Amino acid sequence: MSVEIKAGEDRYDIVVDGKTAGFLDTRTRPDAVLFLHTEISDDFAGQGLAGKLVKAALDDVRSQGKSVLPYCPYVRSYIAKHREYEDLVPEDKRAEFEL
Fold this sequence. Notes:
Blueprint: E1 3-8, E2 11-16, E3 19-28, E4 32-40, H1 49-64, E5 67-70, H2 73-81
Parallel strand pairs: 4-5
Antiparallel strand pairs: 1-2, 2-3, 3-4
């Protein structure tokens, strides 16, 4: 199984064996990326792909030197479980996202 993350304009896709398995919708601002919605196709559910997708997207945003506003509940819970990404959420916004 090959897994590929494709960063596009306001979207990250996860591709498995040439098929789009899911996506993460975002909106890019000058200093932050808003994470809005994560979705994995039912055909690919239960394989840990959402976590791989979110991790890759968070790593990409970090490499750009931007912050993250995790409006997507899945992304919020991922950051809560993987505290090494909490620093991407501005300190003054963490309470808003329960982080």
